[in-house]
């Protein structure tokens, strides 16, 4: 019998949009496929697609465009088969499960990320989730491990840093805080779109994961307006406003790097900015609801 995927691996089809057909594409083995969705599409177009009667051997990789690239491991229990058989097996064996791509929101402090995300989560309740961070600080009264945070000791945290398990981490008041790749996958596997509000390093690191997120950059109309907004939010000291503005200059340059973001929204008018973000994510949300029978 032919099977695909490593033993015990759950393979599933992931709808990217309501009209995607979830078929797999069979291509010659190409390790550089593990990049962003956009690049994958480019590479796949360049590589050889196999016809139904082509023989599949273990040096052929199969790629489901609607799945995270990392899980695409061919495991052929019989040494050879045809592309047709492999496609059929895929259709028969794989479960249909929505594994939505995480949504990454970056941009200077005060650019409006939280405001936009709050609206999005309000409008589409149960469709989005935040990952649970790890920290070395002690739990406060009423906090539960795995709910507010994963509480771990410094040694474990540092080991995880060495193992490259974090997307982003920081040290603050003698404690570590970090977002692990696994925590993001957990949200994905619960069928929600994982929202990640990250800084420059976080964006860079996410590019090197198999999480395949969609990247959105929120830009203020100008530094002057950013300053006004930070001040009128009333949450920052003068020193903190200055630090944030200084960092904003670097972040705005980063936002302009070609290909870094799938979407750049200039947040001059909140209604306009929200409607652009909403439109961008709508297909994914609708596919998610459909997969839940909503
Ligand atoms: N388009 C807009 N017009 C006017 N004010 C806005 C607009 N968007 C956001 N604001 C206001 O600007 C302030 C900063 O917005 P917000 O807190 O959402 O920024 P942020 O990017 O999440 O910041 P941080 O990274 O520091 O959390 C808030 O007081 C918010 O109400």
Secondary structure layout:
Layout: E1 12-13, E2 24-28, H1 37-46, E3 55-56, E4 60-64, E5 81-82, H2 83-93, E6 95-96, E7 103-106, H3 113-123, E8 128-130, E9 133-135, E10 149-151, H4 154-162, E11 166-172, E12 175-180, H5 181-189, E13 193-197, H6 200-207, E14 214-219, H7 223-233, H8 238-255, E15 263-266, H9 270-291
Parallel strand pairs: 1-6, 7-13, 7-14, 8-13, 9-10, 14-15
Antiparallel strand pairs: 2-4, 3-5, 9-12, 11-12
Helix pairs in contact: 7-8
The chain binds adenosine-5'-triphosphate.
Structure overview:
The chain is built from 9 helices and 15 strands. It is of the alpha/beta class and 294 residues long. It folds into 2 domains: 12-96, no CATH class; 103-291, Rossmann fold. A 5-stranded parallel sheet has the order 8-13-7-14-15, with helices on both faces. Strands 10-9-12-11 form a 4-stranded mixed sheet. A hairpin with a 2-residue loop joins strand 11 and strand 12. It is globular. The model is unreliable at 14-25, 27-47 and 64-74 (pLDDT under 50). Bound molecules: adenosine-5'-triphosphate. The site of adenosine-5'-triphosphate (ATP) has 14 residues, from helix 3, helix 7 and helix 9.
CATH fold-level topology of the largest domain: Rossmann fold
**Global morphology:** globular
List the helices and strands in order: EEHEEEHEEHEEEHEEHEHEHHEH
Reported CATH architecture of the largest domain: 3-Layer(aba) Sandwich
- The beta-strand count equals 15
What fraction, in percent, of the residue positions are helical?
A: 25-40%
Number of helices: 9
Number of domains: 2
Which small-molecule ligands are present, each listed once? adenosine-5'-triphosphate
> How do the strands line up in the largest sheet?
8-13-7-14-15
Main sheet?
5 strands, parallel
What structural class is derived from the secondary structure elements? Answer: alpha/beta
Mean pLDDT: 79
Q: How would you name the CATH homologous superfamily of the largest domain?
A: P-loop containing nucleotide triphosphate hydrolases
**CATH domain class of the largest domain:** Alpha Beta
What is the CA-based Rg, rounded?
21 Å
Low-pLDDT runs of 5+ residues are 14-25, 27-47, 64-74
Beta-strand percent range: 15-25%
Distance between the termini: 36 Å
Protein name: guanylate kinase
Pfam families: Guanylate_kin (PF00625)
InterPro entries: GK/Ca_channel_bsu, Guanylate_kin-like_dom, Guanylate_kinase, Guanylate_kinase_CS, P-loop_NTPase
EC number: 2.7.4.8
């Amino acid at each position: 019998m032919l099977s695909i995927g490593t033993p015990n691996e759950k393979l599933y089809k992931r709808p990217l949009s309501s009209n995607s057909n979830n078929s797999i594409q069979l291509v010659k083995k190409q390790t550089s496929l593990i990049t962003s969705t956009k690049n994958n599409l480019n590479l796949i177009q360049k590589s050889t697609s196999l016809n139904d009667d082509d023989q599949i051997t273990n040096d052929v990789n199969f790629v489901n465009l609607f799945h995270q690239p990392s899980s695409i491991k061919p495991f052929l229990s019989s040494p050879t088969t045809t592309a047709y058989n492999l496609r059929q097996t895929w259709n028969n064996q794989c479960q249909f499960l929505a594994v939505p791509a995480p949504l990454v929101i970056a941009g200077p402090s005060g650019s409006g990320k939280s405001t936009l995300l709050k609206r999005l989560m309000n409008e589409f309740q149960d469709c989005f989730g935040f990952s649970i961070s790890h920290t070395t600080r002690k739990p406060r009264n009423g906090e539960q491990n795995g709910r507010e945070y994963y509480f771990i000791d410094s040694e474990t945290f540092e080991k995880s840093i060495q193992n490259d398990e974090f997307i982003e981490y920081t040290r603050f008041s003698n404690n570590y805080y970090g977002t692990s790749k696994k925590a993001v996958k957990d949200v994905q596997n619960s069928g929600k779109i994982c929202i990640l509000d990250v800084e420059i390093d976080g964006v860079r690191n996410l590019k090197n994961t198999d999480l395949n997120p969609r990247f959105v950059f929120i830009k203020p109309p100008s530094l002057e307006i950013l300053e006004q907004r930070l001040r009128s939010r009333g949450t920052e000291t003068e020193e903190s406003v200055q630090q944030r503005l200084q960092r904003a200059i670097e972040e705005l340059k980063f936002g302009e790097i070609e290909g870094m973001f799938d979407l750049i929204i200039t947040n001059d008018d909140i209604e306009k900015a929200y409607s652009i973000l909403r439109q961008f994510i709508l297909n994914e949300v609708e596919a998610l609801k459909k997969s839940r029978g909503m």
